[in-house]
Amino acid sequence: MQASSSHPVKKKLLALITLFMPFISFAQNYLPILQYHHVSEATPFSTSLTTEQFSEHMNYLAQEGFKVVDLKTALDNIQAGSPLPDKAVAITFDDAYRNIYQNGFPILKAHQFPFTVFINTQPIKQKNKHFLTWEQMKEMTHFGGTFANHTVSHPYMLRKLEGETDKAWLERIKLEVSSVEDALITHLGSSPKMIAYPYGESNSELQHWLTNEGFIGFGQQSGVIDANSNFANLPRFPAAGHYAKLSTLKTKLASQPMPLLSYDNGGLYAKDTPVSITLTFKKGNYRLKDLTCYVSGQGKAELNWITSDQVTATAPKAFRAGRGRINCTMPDNSARHYHWFSNVWIYPKESENYVQN
Predict the structure, then answer these.
(1) Is residue 11 part of a domain?
(2) What residue stretches are annotated with the NodB homology domain (predicted)?
């Protein structure tokens, strides 16, 4: 016989659950990360958002109950299999721009949101007035700020100098990284051993070295992190420029990792033919028929289903020189969230001496 819901003990239990439901924090095993640069009205549009827009973003996070988490702690928890709070999200900035301190920091401090700034130290050493000082960074660490590696001079990390050997290139790049680590420890007392690659560029050799050195790395492809992610080249969502609209931000914050078993992008470098990427999905009940892939500057990719759980997405035409990407999204079964995956290719100009591995 089924128990009646009118039983006094059961009624009391239901009342307690209802009472404490707003305070229950449900576990999350993935993490979206927001990427900012400038918080200013007077800086390049593509990497900037206004103080008002940044305030709007942070107010939305607070009002909708998002839990802004410390980036390094959250990543350590994901790797260890420990759950994150429900609606966890992390906030990052690239480059050590002073307008982060002037315009962004007061808003973050008011909300008590932790954040991470990836710094390049050359302009700091040169006392460039547009960049943070160590004194400002020390102040920010007392209010949730963490400072991490963005190299000394912000180079294209895969480009060799004229006449430079592969060995000399790698030693130069290692020095770009290790010098920042020394500066972080000297001026701030510690380093989280995280690096954001300038322009999002890295290769397997750099990623392997950094992993062996205990680093976590970040590119500039978009997506959501979980335990299956490549922790030497993690994705983040850009939230400035064309992506600063609150409607765009809402979609990204509601995103989840794409349920991929594997993918094959054909290599890091694009050529003078259209790129393609093959995605193999995990077994499960997914809305694969609603998968859509978009090519930067070209519209939708052509999808060719090889099997019921494997598809190749091909760009309509070849990329121009620079960096191009394919972003793939798929609604989850609730239709309230999107699974998200992105891949970036580099198409070097003939004059650019990129390493070939």
Answers:
(1) no
(2) 87-357
Contact yes or no for 236/92 (Cβ under 8 A): yes
How many residues appear in the chain?
Answer: 357
In a 3-state reduction of DSSP, which class is residue 251? helix
pLDDT digits (tens, 9 = 90+) for 220-232: 999 999 999 999 9
> Would you say residue 16 lies in a domain?
no
Spatial distance between the Cα atoms of 315 and 302, rounded to a whole number of angstroms? 7
214: left (phi over 0), alpha (psi -120 to 50) or beta: left
Domain-embedded: residue 106: yes
115 pLDDT above the threshold of 90: yes
Q: How many CA atoms lie within 13 A of 67 on its CB side?
A: 17
pLDDT tens digits for range 63-76: 999 999 999 999 99
Residue 289: domain span: 261-347
Q: How many domains are contained in the chain?
A: 2
Q: Among 30, 33, 27, 24, which Cα is nearest to 86's?
A: 27
| Separation CA 96–CA 57 (nearest Å) | 20
